[in-house]
Amino acid sequence: MSRPPRNAYPGGYFHVGTRGNNKQVIYLDGTDRYWFLEMLGKAVVRYEWSVYSYCLMTNHYHAVVHIPEGGLSEGMCELNGGYARWSNMRHGRCDHLFGRRFSSREITTEEYLLETCRYVVLNPVRAGLAKRPEEWIWSSHRACAGLEYPLPWFKPKTLLQLFSQRPQQAVAQYRRFVENALVEEGLVPVPVTEDEVAR
Q1: CATH of the domain at 175
Q2: What residues have CB less than 8 Å from 190, skipping those under 6 apart?
């Protein structure tokens, strides 16, 4: 039976990701994660994607992308295939690294886009890998929160301008947006003050 076609039209926004085969770990160390991000960056540049949010977990990853010119399936195939081959060679494996083909969910509203970006960067906290999202260095959160310089292919302004056209205000509002979810979900005991969010 043939696979149903994806609705990955040019100009669309999508929440994409892939899980390890049998839910197995796909990143064994920081070197694996570093090279995966390098390969993601090549796909972003080649297919002219805009990445709004990303996060590398242990056995899967998430990314929120806008594809002005299309190329979602092609780019994801190159990313997953290239990383799987590199990882298998590095670790002396020969079996499938990833399980099913990549998942993609269409994003059709700005509200859903923001919620999805927040969901992505809070994954490590929900999974118990970090107490706060800024502790997890393998996501877009630290760059968007103004805590580190972004990777060359990742442009935090893409997401931050949805909060405000003023850079400092945009960062503060983004951080408050993420903090609110931490409080609402009981992932932190008390809300932070306005001064702490603005730092």
Answers
A1: 3.30.70.1290
A2: 183
pTM of the model: 0.90
As a whole number of angstroms, the distance between CA 192 and CA 158 comes to 26
Q: Which two tokens stand for residue 99?
A: 């399980």
Torsion of Cα atoms, 38 then 40 then 46 then 49, to 10°: -130
Count of the separate structural domains present in the chain: 1
- For the chain, list residues with pLDDT below 50: 1-2, 191-192, 196-199
Say how far apart CA 114 and CA 178 lie, in whole Å.
10
- The pLDDT assigned to 185 comes to 85
Q: What is the pLDDT of residue 143?
A: 98
The β-bridge partners of 19 are 60
Q: Whole-angstrom Cα distance, residue 60 to residue 38?
A: 16
